[in-house]
Amino acid sequence: HQGEKLRQGAACLSPLPGVSAGNGCGHTLLTPHSGTLSSKNYPGTYPNHTMCRWQLQGPPDTSLLLAFGDVDLEPSEHCAHSSLLLADPRTGTAYGPYCRNSVPSAPLLVTNSSTVTVLFNSTSHRSGRGLLLSYATSQHPGTHYTQEHVSPESPLTMCFSVYCPAGCKDIHGDVWGNPSQGYRDTSVLCKAAVHAGVIADELGGQVTLSREKGITLYESAFANGLHSKRGSLSEKRLIFHKVCCVLSPACDDALEVVAFNASSWWHEVDALGQDRAWVAERAALSTTGHSWAAEPGAEAAWLELDLGTRRNVTGIITKGSSKQHDYYVTSYHVSSSCDGKNWRPYRGSSGQEDKVFEGNADSQGEVSNAFIPPIIARYVR
């Protein structure tokens, strides 16, 4: 059963691949405008006798801003055993070498170049988490740093604006909270933004949010490939704000579904001989009791939503049938159409392969997935 609660928002651009090489590279996601990189095994101990070389390339006429999230390399004289070195190959300017006894003088390095080479190497050592670094271009200042002001509507509400680099999703750290209730301010902010569907991990982007007084308990939720944890203690929460699209005066509205259609439906006859029709119309997220289900054994089954007119669709929430009828969809593809005849598969921001959305793990919880970039269509399958 797939719910039809759809959300509205703004679009993003597709990234270009970055360059990295070596046997010491950890989590790496490099785009022209921002990125995140780490040494192998981070935040565990980095391995002996490894190296990695990252080539960061921004657009012409921009400069790169590098934020040192963590530089924990075992100390040695002149950082000879394990080191981090940064260089501008165009001007010959070098930064470093860095290790635990020779750390960067500031957490943010502002360069004068759109190209920077990052070189990490290790010899024999016993300890050290390794390297975590993110970057953005001068077009997007504020990576990992916030500009805050007090909201004039409420003196108790603190507003923030931060540019989140691409690649933060798989960095070690928990996400606390859910989109409807807000996120605890102890969470990893940019990872929470991915969870909430405000940005795509493969693109990064600007995030605007407010810090407000919240509840003392957050239930876990699964959204955009991230599972938040059940948390308590802090009453402060983060509320993410989206820029509303010109197609609608409001964000986060549930779009009305004019009609449901499906490839097939299950006509069930239970043990008492009673009929139960699992028709497409029962696919609405708020429907109680049994939902829609395809005919048993059907291949390539689909559910179709008719929105009545072309709309800007930025997300979908799915849920299983019910506790009594323990059925749910674990993964699915999405395609869209303006006329109901010509269909376009959703491929996400990379544009290479049809995106597989992670669905539900049980029949009770709701799972949210954002479309970044969004879909503009009348029909969604």
From TrEMBL:
Q: Which Gene3D superfamilies match?
A: Galactose-binding domain-like, LCCL-like domain, Spermadhesin, CUB domain
What Gene Ontology cellular component terms go with this record?
A: plasma membrane
Membrane protein topology class: Single-pass type I membrane protein
PROSITE patterns per the UniProt record, alphabetical: CUB, FA58C_1, FA58C_3, LCCL
CUB domain location = 25-138
Disulfide bridge map: C25-C52
Q: Which Pfam families match?
A: CUB (PF00431), F5_F8_type_C (PF00754), LCCL (PF03815)
Q: Where in the cell is it found?
A: Membrane
Which keywords fit this entry according to its UniProt record?
Disulfide bond, Membrane, Phosphoprotein, Transmembrane, Transmembrane helix
Q: What is this protein called?
A: DCBD1 protein
* Originating organism: Orthonyx spaldingii
